[in-house]
Amino acid sequence: MKPDENLVLADFAARFAGEIAPQVQPAYLAAAIGMSAGILGMIAEDWDRSASRRVEENRAVRGLFRDAAGLGLEAGLAARLAALAEGNDDDLRLSALEAGNEALRAALIDLHAAVEAMEGAAAKALNDAIWRELSASTQRRRLSAGSF
Predict the structure, then answer these.
(1) Which residues contact 106 (CB under 8 A, 6 or more apart)?
(2) Exposure string for 3-22, b = 16+ CB within 10 A, e = fewer
(3) Which tens digit of pLDDT belongs to each residue from 10-55?
(4) What pLDDT, in 10s, does the model give residues 117-130?
(5) Rg of the Cα trace of the chain?
């Protein structure tokens, strides 16, 4: 048997919310179990897309770094961005993808700060592209349950 993580998490969430929580006393423990069920449901929803979301985002951020070449950035930042732009996501373990994503996003913050301080059409275009990617990144993480 090969367990499907999405199905297992969704099943746990359903059992906690539908079978276990209603039978638990006092009410605050039932509510805590219900909240845990909701969290398990969100994890199940995100699990399937976790790797693809990170790969898509990492690819987009590396593209922004390539677009930044030739903008006249400070040499250290330009070299850092160039090195990161050449990276890849060959290791598809979530921990490796997340570590890469964190490094890319940290550099993106530095790039964004530098670009916002620059004049010219190229800098403005890159700033706009960064904002579009940040918006897209937020949409990639959206859960159907919304905020709670």
Answers:
(1) none
(2) eeeeeebbebbeebbeeebe
(3) 787 888 788 887 877 888 887 888 888 888 888 888 888 899 999 9
(4) 999 999 999 999 99
(5) 21
- CB under 8 A, 24+ apart: contacts of 127-135: 129/64, 129/67, 130/64, 133/57, 133/60, 133/61, 133/64, 133/108
For the entire predicted model, the pTM comes to 0.80
What are the backbone dihedrals phi and psi of residue 23, each rounded to the nearest 5 degrees, phi first?
Answer: -100, -5
Q: How distant, in Å, are the alpha carbons of 28, 50, 73, 112, 114 from that of 117?
A: 51, 34, 11, 9, 5
Distances from the Cα of 91 to the Cα of 4, 16, 58, 88, 100, angstroms: 21, 34, 13, 8, 10
Please compute the mean of the pLDDT values over residues 136-142 and round it to a whole number: 93
